[in-house]
Specification:
By secondary structure, this protein is α/β, with parallel strands linked by helices. It has 2 domains: 141 residues, Rossmann fold; 63 residues, DNA polymerase, domain 1 (Orthogonal Bundle). It contains 10 helices and 8 strands. The strands form 2 sheets. A 6-stranded parallel β-sheet has the order 5-4-1-6-7-8, with helices on both faces. Strands 2-3 form a two-stranded antiparallel sheet. α1 packs across α4 and α3 packs across α4. It is globular and about 55 Å long. The protein starts with 5 loop residues before the first strand and ends with a helix.
């Protein structure tokens, strides 16, 4: 039997590589506001706290008045183009399949709005693996507030000691700590440097290492 019978996954930077599509939507938004584009690396550094915060960070405090307009442009473009380049990381579908075969319950907890999260999971061929998807607008709160984890635990009826939160950023680690569950950081995502400053219980550099943590 695996130690963990409920795995809660972050989405961007953990299950899927969405850097290029997030950057494209951000730059379309910036162009609509008459501002210069940003590099993929800069946009990636702004990801993790939801789409609206991404827009706020990309615009900067001097253009805070443009956030409502920019957010609307960002979401309209992103909903239409969220799968142009976004793909699961190598090995992720196989890991999810192996976990499900063991009877492990899989969930997604992301700060991305629920509608595009579900669309990405469906388009990437991953949706059928997951029991529940909680997005940044599913509940009145979002990560690092622990209530998303508590909501998933209520739905899955799996105890805290058998639940593992897997993500790529300090936000995920803080969420797990606040909820009283174990955390695993993946270094292939967007926030590897931040993980070192807020170390989770486990750190993995590959999907193969993650499989050993969750299945052995």
């Amino acid at each position: 039997m695996s130690r963990f019978t409920h795995l809660i996954f972050d989405l961007d930077g953990t299950l899927v590589d969405s850097k290029a599509d997030l950057a494209a939507a951000t730059n379309v938004m910036l162009e609509s506001c008459g501002l210069a584009p940003l590099s993929i690396e800069k946009v990636t550094s702004y990801v993790g706290d939801g789409a609206r915060v991404l827009v706020e960070r990309a615009l900067g405090p001097e253009h805070a008045h443009l956030v409502p307009q920019g957010f609307a442009v960002f979401m309209e473009y992103y909903l239409a183009h969220s799968l142009d380049h976004t793909r699961p990381y190598d090995g992720i579908p196989q890991l999810l399949s192996a976990a499900r075969a063991r009877g492990i319950i899989l969930s997604v907890l992301t700060n991305k709005p629920e509608a595009p999260s579900r669309a990405i999971l469906e388009g990437a061929g991953l949706a059928h693996f997951f029991h529940t998807v909680v997005g940044g607008d599913t509940l009145p709160v979002r990560k690092p507030d622990p209530r998303g984890v508590f909501h998933l635990q209520k739905l899955t009826k799996v105890a805290s000691e058998a639940t593992l939160l897997i993500g790529d950023s300090p936000v995920d680690v803080k969420t797990g700590e606040a909820a009283g569950i174990a955390t695993c950081g993946v270094t292939w995502g967007f926030g590897a440097q931040g993980l070192m400053a807020t170390p989770p219980e486990f750190v993995v550099d590959s999907v193969e290492e993650l499989q050993r943590v969750v299945l052995e």
